[in-house]
Amino acid sequence: MRLSRYFLPVTKDAPADAAIASHKLMLRTGMVRQNGAGIYSWLPMGFRVLKKIEQIVREEMDRAGAVEMLMPTLQQADLWRESGRYEAYGKEMLRIQDRHERDMLYGPTNEELVTDVFRSYVKSYKQLPLVLYHQQWKFRDEVRPRFGVMRGREFLMKDAYSFDLTEEDARVSYRKMFCAYLNAFGRMGLTAVPMRADTGPIGGDMSHEFIILADTGESAVFCDKALLDMPAPGLDLDFDGDLTAEVEKRTQYYAATEEMHDADAFAALPADRQVSARGIEVGHIFNFGTKYSVPMNAVVQTTDGQMVPVQMGSYGIGVSRLVGGIIEACHDENGIVWPESVAPWQVGLINMRVGDAACDAVCERIYQALQAAGREVLYDDTDERAGGKFARMDLIGLPWQTTVGPRGVADGKVEVKNRKTGEKHEVSIEDMLNQLDAQK
Amino acid sequence: MRLSRYFLPVTKDAPADAAIASHKLMLRTGMVRQNGAGIYSWLPMGFRVLKKIEQIVREEMDRAGAVEMLMPTLQQADLWRESGRYEAYGKEMLRIQDRHERDMLYGPTNEELVTDVFRSYVKSYKQLPLVLYHQQWKFRDEVRPRFGVMRGREFLMKDAYSFDLTEEDARVSYRKMFCAYLNAFGRMGLTAVPMRADTGPIGGDMSHEFIILADTGESAVFCDKALLDMPAPGLDLDFDGDLTAEVEKRTQYYAATEEMHDADAFAALPADRQVSARGIEVGHIFNFGTKYSVPMNAVVQTTDGQMVPVQMGSYGIGVSRLVGGIIEACHDENGIVWPESVAPWQVGLINMRVGDAACDAVCERIYQALQAAGREVLYDDTDERAGGKFARMDLIGLPWQTTVGPRGVADGKVEVKNRKTGEKHEVSIEDMLNQLDAQK
């Protein structure tokens, strides 16, 4: 992408009401613009990151055998009356009447709707297990939306729903999602710690939150340091195999949010393993059995002909919140430091002297070669001063910067900088082009 | 995808209230499920097609230089009061109050919101031209939603907005979108005819609808047959060049919707070129100058330091409607006949005798080889009868069917069928695998 043709409205200062690093940086880099309390437009660069995260979540859900669909944003109130949650949900639910005065709502979550889809089609144990998921905008009418996309009102959530014949099968589905979550967050460069959690308004008897540690986290969390050092299960995990050991490898260690915290159990840990920190919830999974299938009569036939309510679970990831969460975990005093997997582009190409025939020609060759080799490149071909270009490129945090200036070009060289480490080295232009050519 | 692990709820009959072919077929093939009047869940196969169309639209917008972003579904009423459309829009606008009794609405279109984004950042002619677009769910509270996704209330629209310094520049942007639309529809296997159109509530002095012909179309259309025989401009079109000729090549011919119809001009055409038909609107583009920029004070500085209101246009494509539109144009008595570019999978692989070791092994090899060669495959590995499998595969309309049965396997052969032509031929298994291997 040529910056001269792009829309990247970087600003010098963040508004005073942006309290945390991610919110400030997302406003300064022109990733989002607020359109109302807790409601944001995703400007082009922000949109690219959001799509990257969405795609990683998709790939890890698919790998775990979940099937993607898309439910609408607006739902009928009557479905929520069936489950009993219409009145119970309170003011966070945005209630709407259409022109015929039918009661509707903007979905804050989808247990009722997906249960309705399920009961319309699935009648037999033969069609199980089934995990359906979607990535759709949700609305929760928070009293005080804050921290930018971290606690917005309109937000993008991935929510998956599992359907199983037996309680034990439901636990198998739960473990698949548990592992898929660790892999998804791992691919985003995050260490997410599964913590025993309260089930809240979703209900159920088993629940874990996935928490990333950050000083600006909204809640206090407590865990064993061993969990922070443990890598994700890995993309070669066999999701058809028994994942019990993979889950218990983690749940054996202490980890809990404030509301589930057991101070005595935590104090019993060796002192050097006691991690007491702030955390951001990026995922939450629930096993709630027949909480919805019983009132909504979602039943399936068993092998011996009985009709039984289906066992369910639900599994959420805060896709838009993750954009903020990743920035909280990945920034320094100069700006964002994107992990490669979610960076809007992998490479920033800086032309220090646009209009200089030699610089322009080298940039053009490198730009084409990078793209031909499958790299995503933002080419700063604007006629601004070099100093401003460097600062902006650091601010938006692409993992690699390639700088082309007149002196280097005269020597056949360009400079490559690693944004994270700050390391710079000179590279021969011909070597770089040859290497890229070999990667086509 | 293995069908045994997928969710494809095909049904024998369509509900009686489904009046047109696409609605019937989308319900029978389990592509969508209605969740309320004009509100649908996109079940997994429907979702795949929707994503294919969205991606084609994205690629053609990007090729024409437009930049993708994402605006929220909910908007503040105050923005619409600025433009004067809040009261004017009528009952099709879904009006909402949040918990603080602030007036909001579910966006039926985004001229106001994008103009607000624009005026917040862009101050100079140097930042122009600019075309921003997004693909987001919209809501229009139709009195009588009907024809399935063709006239739903919650629907997915791609809407682009152009910003230019002068009227002539705005026409340049208009022509780019005009050509990009023809390319996008062409890639979907559709012949879309641009027709002079009324500008309606969007306003402006220049507008074209893009219409595909179908017997079930909602409006009468009239055009010169020459337009139906004209291919799209082509993906190698130079969008930086002058596109006037490319546009006029089409606008020189008569084409108009009912409301713009000039019976005398139409009658003057040679009889064999008079096409009078029904049509489905799949796109609509508008050049409306300063209709929004003046009341909303979206001004930019000119080269000589003056501040002038920016020239705008908007460009819509009915992404979810297109799923129905394509089926209207592409089906036969046995079901859907997908164009390859939007098919949910390119190949359907039928195992006639699941459990037969030889059939299973051949299917598995072909399934793996097809995927390794980059083909999307739906593998019917269910234990149903062959007759039902054939009928279902015809119904869902994948372009190619590969059938593996015990007799063929004994001869080292499988059958390949073209869904559109019905042509079948036997292919040697080894030849097929070798060919696929070469395409890796």
UniProtKB/TrEMBL annotation, chains A, B:
Catalytic activity: tRNA(Pro) + L-proline + ATP = L-prolyl-tRNA(Pro) + AMP + diphosphate
Cross-referenced CDD domains: ProRS_anticodon_short, ProRS_core_prok
PROSITE patterns, sorted: AA_TRNA_LIGASE_II
Function per UniProt: Catalyzes the attachment of proline to tRNA(Pro) in a two-step reaction: proline is first activated by ATP to form Pro-AMP and then transferred to the acceptor end of tRNA(Pro).
Chief place of localization: cytoplasm
Pfam families in the cross-refs: HGTP_anticodon, tRNA-synt_2b
Source species: Hyphomonas johnsonii MHS-2
A GO cellular component entry from the record: cytosol
Compartments, record wording: Cytoplasm
Gene3D superfamilies reported for this sequence: Anticodon-binding domain (3.40.50.800), Bira Bifunctional Protein, Domain 2 (3.30.930.10)
Protein family membership: Belongs to the class-II aminoacyl-tRNA synthetase family. ProS type 2 subfamily.
EC number: 6.1.1.15
Domain Aminoacyl-transfer RNA synthetases class-II family profile: 38-339
The UniProt record lists the keyword ATP-binding: yes
InterPro entries for the chain: aa-tRNA-synt_IIb (IPR002314), aa-tRNA-synth_II (IPR006195), aa-tRNA-synth_II/BPL/LPL (IPR045864), Anticodon-bd (IPR004154), Anticodon-bd_dom_sf (IPR036621), Pro-tRNA-ligase_IIa (IPR002316), Pro-tRNA-synth_IIa_bac-type (IPR004500), Pro-tRNA_synthetase (IPR050062)
Subunit details: Homodimer.
SUPFAM superfamilies the UniProt entry points to: Class II aaRS ABD-related (SSF52954), Class II aaRS and biotin synthetases (SSF55681)
A single GO molecular function term of this UniProt record: proline-tRNA ligase activity
Keyword set, alphabetical order: Aminoacyl-tRNA synthetase, ATP-binding, Cytoplasm, Ligase, Nucleotide-binding, Protein biosynthesis
PANTHER family per UniProt: MITOCHONDRIAL RIBOSOME PROTEIN L39/PROLYL-TRNA LIGASE FAMILY MEMBER, PROLINE--TRNA LIGASE
Protein known as: Proline--tRNA ligase
Any GO BP: prolyl-tRNA aminoacylation
